[in-house]
Amino acid sequence: MRGVLWLAWRQQRLMITTGIVLLAATAAWAAYRRSELMTLIDDYGFVPCKGWNGGCESLGSFLVLDASTGSIRALGTLGLALPALIGVFWGAPLLGREMETGTFKLALTQGVSGRRWFAARFGLAALFTVLAAGVVAALVAWWWAPVSNTLNGLYWYDAYIYNATGPASVACALFGLATGTAVGLLVRRTLPAMAVTFAAIGTATLLTRMLRSSWIAPEMRVTPGMTPKTMVGSAWSTGEFGYLTPDGRQHDINTPVCQTSGEELRQCMAEHGFVARYHKVYPSSDFWTFQWIETAIYLGVAAVLVALVLFVLRRPAATVRAATVRAATERAATERAARAATTTGV
Description:
Blueprint (H helix, E strand, L loop, with lengths): L2 H42 L14 H43 L2 H5 L5 H31 L14 H4 L3 H22 L2 H22 L7 E6 L11 E9 L5 E3 L9 H11 L3 E7 L3 H60 L1
Antiparallel strand pairs: 1-4, 2-3, 2-4
Helix pairs in contact: 1-2, 1-4, 2-4, 2-6, 2-7, 4-6, 6-7, 6-9
């Protein structure tokens, strides 16, 4: 390792080694707690009763979930917060501190282009970001798998699971790093850049969550007549319930309000000409569809931000090179003048 890569390692090694130690500690804790979970599953005769379908729940199942859900949620919170942590404490200072102190000029006067200098620093940070996000995502998924989508536990659409597992969590972490890097370069002061980065990443993840349900159409489950409705199970309910007329028109459950069962429901449906009930949900299989859509969005925005950084870096690099050439020219002229004066004096 040498050149700009060696310099990038020297400047980031404390952050990398600290992160690796924390990752190792987190993995050891997760492995220990998961072994406790597996022991409880064996001791209580845990039944994987997926969803709230009824008929398979037991006291042992609830005891297992009560003992494990909080800890899994804590690890999921780490995965949820990781993009912001990386963006604020690594991305924002990555270039922001260099710009604030002016130390970037030293690197650019050593015959190194701005792009090479940036590529070494950002590439090393991105490599560890992928490692950290991937490890945390794998730990959350591994720990959660035995009790996934069960009774009153955690479901695939919960933020602690969805935002902490799958490819989208890794892509979001890279997005966080790219956001912090771009903000640090533009703001050029570390502390303000950290604040702006936190706000930007928080806003982006919140908007993504709000818009998620509009990316694909939900599945509409239709229950003809008085047939018992299909249970929600592990699906993510949109909260859209209602009635259907013979021509397929949908009527929200609140207009009009009919009883949910019994003779009152039959009479109400007959009075309004309803022939079926509907409920819109996203089945658990949609997890991967949502994940790949978010992955593409986060990686696309991250690529745009990296391109912006490269574009902005062209100007200071050119300025520094011009200043260096100018200084060298002036120094050479001064030396020539000094030699000429010495010769004349002799």
